[in-house]
Specification:
Blueprint (H helix, E strand, L loop, with lengths): L2 E6 L4 E8 L1 H16 L14 H8 L1 H20 L11 E6 L6 E8 L4 E3 L17 H17 L6 H9 L8 H6 L5 H34 L1 E3 L3 H21 L4 H8 L3 H28 L6 H9 L4 H6 L3 H25 L1
Antiparallel strand pairs: 1-2, 2-4, 3-4, 5-6
């Protein structure tokens, strides 16, 4: 029977020292030796036919390393049974002692899921920002931008066409011909479509701003001892987001950093306060989901996956981890919708 010693450290780190009796380890040693023997070829013996003691001597520390590699995760799981430790990262381990015929002892360092406390979220208040009306100038600017891009692609007029065009008193600018090329019935119809698109975008951004205001209130009433691994993960997520924006501008990240006069490490250090707020916000929302028993059914999860048009991306959700991540995201969205009802009531 294994013995353990669990020590809780700062920032949700946990050290677990595990001692495994040789009697518990011996079956795994013999099983691993037999498996590795199949690929060992020694002088005078067919491949896989050498005596076990000779193979064991030939393998040396490779056998010990393999036994430990395949054994320690299960022994760590066994050691954590009955505790309140829920790892959120892969353990880092140090081998203390391991000799055939004697006890195995190792130390694992893991990050425990942090304890999260959320205040009275049922009384938080957030103000929905007013929706700014779309102006005629904004509509015309979109039309003009579309027209400029369209005009560049048109064939250059001949001298005769130019003279006829000018003699008819026509001026260059957006017209019904251009509007029809854009898929509209007329210039008036195109302007109407553009206005509706701009209004839909304003409404969408307004909803995002409102949700952000609610999440900021959640962050304010959330208390948690922040694990370094979660901050690191959030910084990496923020970096990926920046890389996408920079790529959309046709730049490399290196060029962008040079233009800002900053190194990547400087940028990450500046981001740390925001990353901490983001993590606190995420954990607070997840804790509210737990308290409110918010869940995502298998049917809801599959319905979301079925919406994906790209077959390659859709295929990724046949694996367990992407499905878990999507389920978590949907649960967070459902919880935010619940909060919007509470705030609005």
């Amino acid at each position: 029977m294994i013995t353990k010693n669990i020590s809780k450290l700062a920032k949700s780190l946990v050290e677990v020292t595990v001692t495994v009796p040789w009697t518990d380890l011996e079956p795994k040693w013999n099983e691993t030796l037999q498996r590795l023997s199949a690929d060992v070829e020694l002088p005078g013996f067919r491949k896989g036919a050498a005596p076990a003691n000779m193979v064991e001597q030939n393998l040396g520390t490779k056998l010990q390393d393999e036994v430990f590699k395949v054994s320690f995760p299960n022994f760590l799981i066994e050691a954590l049974k009955g505790s309140d430790i829920i790892p959120i990262d892969y353990p880092k381990y140090d081998l203390i002692s391991f000799v055939k015929g004697q006890n195995l002892q190792f130390r694992a360092t893991i990050t425990n899921r942090p304890a999260v406390t959320v205040g009275n979220y049922k009384v938080i208040r957030a103000t929905r920002p007013p929706i700014k009306p779309v102006t005629e100038e904004e509509v015309n600017k979109v039309i003009d931008d579309l027209y400029k891009r369209w005009k560049v692609k048109q064939p250059a007029p001949t001298q005769t066409n130019t003279i006829n065009f000018q003699s008819n008193g026509q001026t260059s600018g957006p017209d019904d011909t251009f509007a029809k090329a854009m898929g509209a019935l007329s210039l008036i119809d195109l302007k109407d479509k553009v206005r509706k698109d701009l209004e839909a975008n304003v409404t969408y951004n307004n909803e995002l701003d409102y949700e952000e205001a609610i999440l900021q209130e959640v962050e304010k009433i959330t208390t948690v001892e922040m694990p370094d691994i979660l901050i690191s993960d959030e910084l990496n997520r923020m970096l990926v987001s920046l890389q996408r924006r920079v790529a959309d501008m046709g730049l490399l990240l290196e060029d962008y950093l040079k233009s800002q006069g900053k190194t990547l490490e400087q940028l990450k250090r500046e981001w740390i306060p925001q990353a901490e707020r983001n993590v606190r916000m995420e954990l607070g929302l997840a804790e509210i989901a737990r308290q409110e028993n918010v869940s995502i059914t298998d049917q809801e999860l599959q319905a979301e996956i079925d919406k994906i048009q790209d077959a390659r991306i859709k295929q990724q959700f046949s694996a367990q981890e992407p499905r878990l991540q999507l389920r978590h995201s949907l649960r967070q969205v459902k919880t935010l919708d619940l909060l919007k009802k509470l705030v609005g009531s």
